[in-house]
Amino acid sequence: MRPLARPPWEPWFEGADAGLVAQSAFGRFCAACERHLNEGVEAWDARTGRRAAARATASGWDDLLPLCVNCLAASEAAAGADLGDDAGLRPDRAAPFADAAAPPFTYVSVPVAVRGADEAGDASAPATVERVLVRGHTPAAVAMIGRFALNTPHHVVTSDGGDALLLPAGTPLRLLDAYDPRLERRTEAWVDAEIAADALAAAPPGGRGAALRSLGWGMRFTGFWSVWAQVLWDRLQDDEVLARVRDHPAYLGTRAA
């Protein structure tokens, strides 16, 4: 989860579209799943767990964050449910990456079984797909993943400890990815980050600047800041690259947590 620094309230925010205000403060990325919001920004009230009022107000500013439509729907469905104490991991109030040795969230690329409609009704459908899942390593992180259904509402853990997507009747995987593209796009960002890491590792001194610029464009258009940060750090252990990730101009208000 990208750690966010909330800027001060500005007079022009008052009465403006809440989604545009949230976007102007934090960039065009979902505050929960981190995907790039080319489909539009949903304004979320972190105090209620539901959609924010249509117009921004000074009294609601401290709880306004941008979400994608899928994370907003999951949060509204979970509102009132006892998911545990996830308040401490709000990205604008906590430092999710403060302890690099034991972060509350990590991302893993794993085979995920496809079960349900595809399995029963489409012989050409894959039995497994490679997907990047987010894991929680503290009760609060697990609660946060549940609140936003960050691995989609259809992700289940199998009896042998594996991962599966349990598809509803009449919903092949391609339709699930169209309706809730977070897993697919997170996986694409992971692959892009691995390619960028390889390019940086292989770049001669004179080509390093071009490789870093290419990395910046990839981050801007895919989103998933935390995936890029994890992959690039794990592969390169390079403070300069991590600084470029942290200070990317498209990712407004990213705290150096």
Word description of this protein:
- There is one protein chain.
- This protein has about 260 residues and is an alpha+beta fold.
- Helices cover about 40% and strands about 15% of the residues.
- The protein is built from 9 helices and 7 strands; from the N terminus they run αβββαβαβαββααααα.
- It has helices at about 20-25, 70-80, 115-120, 140-150, 175-180, 180-200, 210-220, 225-235, 240-245, and strands at about 40-45, 50, 65, 105-115, 130-135, 155, 165.
- The strands form 2 sheets. A 4-stranded mixed sheet has the order 5-4-7-6. A 3-stranded antiparallel sheet has the order 2-1-3.
- A hairpin with a 4-residue loop joins strand 1 (about 40-45) and strand 2.
- It is globular and about 50 Å long.
- It starts with 17 loop residues before the first helix and ends in an 11-residue tail after the last helix.
Write the layout of secondary structure elements.
Blueprint: H1 18-26, E1 42-45, E2 50-51, E3 64-67, H2 69-78, E4 105-115, H3 117-121, E5 128-136, H4 139-148, E6 155-157, E7 163-166, H5 173-179, H6 182-202, H7 208-222, H8 225-236, H9 239-246
Parallel strand pairs: 4-7
Antiparallel strand pairs: 1-2, 1-3, 4-5, 6-7
Helix pairs in contact: 6-7, 6-8, 8-9
Global outline = globular
Output mean pLDDT.
87
Tell me the quaternary state: single chain
Largest beta-sheet characterization: 4 strands, mixed
What are the salient characteristics of this protein?
257 residues, 14% strand, 4-stranded mixed beta sheet, 3-stranded antiparallel beta sheet, alpha+beta, 7 strands, 9 helices
